[in-house]
Amino acid sequence: MTSSDPSSIDEAKARYAAERAKRLREDGLAQYEGLKEHHLDRDPWADPDFTRDPVVEDVDVVVLGGGFAGLLTGINLTKRGVSSFRMIEKAADFGGTWYWNRYPGCMCDVDATIYLPLLEETGYMPTERYASATEIFGYCQQLGRHFGLYDHALFQTEVESATWDDEAGRWTVTTTRGDELRARFFVAAGGLMHKAKLPGIRGIDQFAGKAFHTTRWDYAYTGGSPTEPMDGLADKRVGIIGTGATAVQVVPQLARAAKEVYVFQRTPSAVGVRAQQKIDEAWFRSLPPGWQAERTRNFTQVVTGNKPPVDLVADGWSAVLGEDTQREPADEAARARLEAIDFEVMEGFRRRIDEIVDDPDTAEKLKPWYGKHCKRICFHDEYLQAFNRPNVHLVDTDGKGVQEMTAAGPVVDGTEYPLDLLVFASGFEITTGLVDRLGFDPVGRGGVRLSERWHDGTHSLHGILTAELPNFMVVSFIQAGFGLNFVHFLSASTDHITWMIEHCLTEGISSIEATVEAEDAWLDLLWQRSGPLARYNKTCTPSYGNSEGSRTTLAARAAVYSGSLIDYADLLLAWRDEGSLAGTRVARA
Description:
The protein has 21 helices and 21 strands. The protein is an alpha/beta fold. It has 2 domains: 6-31 and 196-274 and 328-424, FAD/NAD(P)-binding domain (3-Layer(bba) Sandwich); 56-82 and 157-195 and 430-581, FAD/NAD(P)-binding domain, CATH 3.50.50. The strands form 6 sheets. Strands 2, 3, 4, 5, 6, 7 and 19 form a 7-stranded mixed beta sheet that branches. Strand 10 (237-241), helix 8 (245-257) and strand 11 (260-265) form a beta-alpha-beta unit. The radius of gyration is 24 Å and the shape is globular. The N and C termini lie far apart (73 Å).
């Protein structure tokens, strides 16, 4: 029987459904908890004794966030001649995700020549095809220096409140450092992955060993550094909860350093070949002007099934996502063809596991049983191989996740696993409510809070503007575009936001917000477009991509602009070119 035989596909679909059913939980997104609640939110990279005088000033724009979203907002404001802005960042430097993620082995899974923005402007050449977290963090710092953003930044600072004054036409923003900033525009550019999460495990605080989240890696305990081996784990029993993109990179590093490693798995990842390689300088320097925009657009076309004549990046993503199997088929024959393509891709990942992992039982438990669009595919050349080491043990929870903890360690199926160190590779909040992720509740016109306007989920125009909160703009893929290359999305979104700010400043517009009618129309459009995606997601195991399988209004309103990110970016451009600011309510000075 070949893998494309309909009976094989039917068997796989039945397995997909069974594995999904195991993992569905009534609490959905509520199964996760924050780091602060468990005293794990300390910044290991910051000066704990840092102090500064409060800043009290009027500015045109306050930008919340210093990752790529915030950096690109600041850069685009600068390019548009808007120099009166402040950037507020919880961390002690720019970088966002790449400030926090300094765990061993961390790197980006998107080609660096399209992930790192503005390479032509800075003249920077990435060292490797898939840049390390250390290199990306350094590049974020370079962007800050190159565009003069450090002069605008308030680091180790969090927003306490943001309140709109309708009479003054300004936001009053207060911070944990005693700052009071009065700004015409507030841009929430926290990005996509800035609030780390923990699994809600009974007894989690009872654990007596060392514990931390991968975004707060403690090299003082493990030894080593992001670029040096961990020499403090040779006599340690280490557990790691999670088998997503982070754990795939961490496990091989732990396997080399620790006495024993226990990998606690809820849902396995599909792991393909990474094939890391150095960037060829002669090739890089030969690229013609405009190459990065062309290469970035081409990649997005390829991985959304649009089949451009040439594949300029041509990596593992192309092979996996070159055919969009989420799209609506024309007929039953087309549906069967798409199912066969999807099945064969995932069969390839499952076959790779059998080829690499020696123990048949471990290999079977590592196999991903879901469609190729259900979870972010991983690429690594050492993760599966790590399970052939005698000190690495897979603890499969049969889809339940770790549910109980004692002082000694996790308990799975009645077996206690005593540990010295427990690492949480449990990712970030992606589709939870914005207020929760922001850490404060913006107050708009007439005292209306964002939490009240969005009590049942997101209300927006283009995922950016919202009614009753004038001059409040959000960078988030919720109700916006979404792309495998997050920085491509951030570039399009921040370009649009800074265009609106410049337009309002130059045209005498004192405030802009969405109308309720436009919000409703935008959501209707998103739902119309998302039919095929929603049907596909119903077959998927729970993950951040489908709000953990939640069937709530909040989850339904967390729709994205289905299809290519290029279509979304072109829609924003057409909206700007049309010139009427359709769907907004504006007031003029």
